[in-house]
What does this fold into?
Amino acid sequence: MLLNLFDTTPEIEREPELQTNFEIEAHGSRVPVRIVFEPRPNNRVSINKNGILIRINRYQNKSEQRQNIDKLLKWAKEKLDGKPQLLDTLPQRHYTNGEVLRVGDTEFVISVFYNDQNKSTAKIFKNNIVLQLAKGLTKEVQDNASSYLVAKCIAKHYQPIISQRISELNERFFKRQVKSVRLKYATSFWGHCSHDGNIVISVRLMFAPKKVIDYVLIHELAHLIHHNHSAQFWKVVEQIMPDYMHAEKHLKEFSAKYYL
It folds into this structure.
């Protein structure tokens, strides 16, 4: 059942500039919630030190918006009840021209340029990432934009590599249907597998050793058999990777060091 969190909040209008702010209780704390209505094709939610941020497609009708907001709030609250540390923040990188970014065994050279346009873009060519940033941005906005753009480039670089590795592991151990594989800069999970076989891997995982990456891929593929974390699920994982706990320990120890 969806959370009826709007019973005590102001009526929501579908205006592009509107932001709705309130708080919910999660893990015994009051957590700020900000809802932004934007001209976007989908809806999404993120959790960080500032609380919960929900971005909603402003072209949906009000009923659809309410249902999607309730659904995303329910997901965020469940995440925070189990992992309150999600409200902790990762350090913010500041990329400089000529900087070398090491991701796993690969080094990427960052080139930074500024333009007179109102948007920032990035391109990746082999191991070179070229950032074209809009002039006049504040340091915070520039750093946020740079992190987002670098993450997209890293995702593009590793997409075929991770897709191929998932295919190999699936063929060897699972032989289940994988509908899609996507990389994104996620801070609240290392991997995710939907009921219909859509796998999402956090770009942050690319910093980890190959065996740790394999563990996460095996973990998500195992969800094609058991879409839970039951004893049967962990038995499948352990049969394929008996020492998987070492990978789990590594991810907990280095989580705060793997960021873009």
Notes: The domain at 100-257 is CATH 3.30.2010.10 (Zincin-like).
